[in-house]
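Q: Structure tokens for this one, please.
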Amino acid sequence: MANQATPVQDITLNGDEFNIKTSTTFKTTEIKFKLGEEFEEHTADGRTVKTIITQDGNKLIQSQKGDGDKVKDSVLTREFNGDDMKMVLTVDDIVCTRCYKKIE
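A: Here is the predicted structure, written as tokens:
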């Protein structure tokens, strides 16, 4: 069912705090963070992870650390190019790519 969802990501910056709100018809999640500062994240799929987000040029790199065997580590890389954003999710040797277009 999740692969049929059409998510919308609203990414804002207020001072030095980012907000990423991801909405689908099934669920809405929201994270607020400052670059380079670790925080506890409750993911849309029910995991609790320690997350740190950094910026490398036009990319936001979100590293999620689980607790070993129960919760796997993952990395979400959001790359921004004009009105496009490509998000690549990597868990172990599995890679998922999702492409977004800016809407106004």
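A few notes: The chain has no helices and nine strands. The longest strand covers residues 48-56.
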